[in-house]
Design goal:
The structure holds two protein chains of two kinds. Chain A is an all-beta fold. Chain A has no helices and nine strands. The chains are: A mainly beta, B mainly beta.
């Protein structure tokens, strides 16, 4: 899996948008960008994924740059319950791809401040 | 559809005992993954199994650890002769058999193993 770099920690005011950056400059053509988060003491939770187009779901938006070397996860209205470690992961996807392990980096520890 | 189930949620063992951790994947999922998270550290992949087969065990310690995913029943992660360094949270994840355009993994709540 391609390597990713993320800031170690970030703060965000409650109610504001949280923008979490991720660099993945060595991403290859068949690799997707996935985001997971881990709230303290819980199992990781899938958030969103994308290949090259921007994606949005009920939890978040994912913005991928045109060259695919970086992306940003956006939580539009952060709440205290969004305080967690956020992991940006790149891994192969697509029909016929082997169901490979997820390689977690250290992630970004997001603190939502009241 | 129930999520990934793990039990027990908490397990205490004395050094030298055996620990057996169980994982029931989501309905219809036949791919199971085990991860370990040591205190204050990140998640590390251990093993990937399909029904009755070990696909990738590159993250498993060479001794004392084994995993299985039988045709019937949950996946089992077994740790023999536990040591204090085995104290960690062990997470199981599952993914569906027939892939859509992606292979998202769904994680269970974890089993917290404490070795006294």
């Amino acid at each position: 899996d391609a390597k990713t770099t993320q800031p170690t920690s970030m703060d965000c005011a409650e109610g504001r948008a949280a923008n979490l950056p991720c660099n993945h400059s060595t991403i290859s053509g068949n690799e997707y960008v996935y985001w997971y988060r881990q709230i303290h003491s819980q199992g990781p939770q899938y958030i969103i994924h994308g290949l090259k187009n921007n994606e949005t779901n009920e939890m978040a938006s994912l913005i991928i740059t045109e060259d695919r070397k970086s992306s940003t996860l956006i939580l539009p209205h952060a709440t205290l319950r969004d305080t967690a470690v956020y992991y940006c992961i790149v891994r192969a996807g697509g029909i016929g791809t082997s169901y490979d392990k997820v390689i977690f980096g250290p992630g970004t520890s997001l603190s939502v401040i009241p | 559809n129930a999520g990934v189930m793990q039990n027990p949620r908490h397990l205490v063992r004395r050094r030298g005992q055996e620990a057996r951790l169980r994982c029931s994947p989501m309905k219809g999922h036949s791919h199971v993954y085990w991860y370990r998270q040591l205190p204050e550290e990140g998640l590390k992949f251990m093993v990937y199994l399909q029904k009755e087969n070990i696909i990738d065990e590159s993250g498993m310690p060479k001794e004392r650890f084994s995993a299985e995913f039988p045709k019937e029943g949950p996946s089992i992660l077994r740790i023999q002769q536990v040591v204090r360094g085995d104290s960690a949270a062990y997470f199981c994840a599952s993914s569906p058999r027939a892939g859509p355009s992606y292979n998202e993994q769904f994680f269970g709540p974890g089993t917290r193993l404490t070795v006294l």
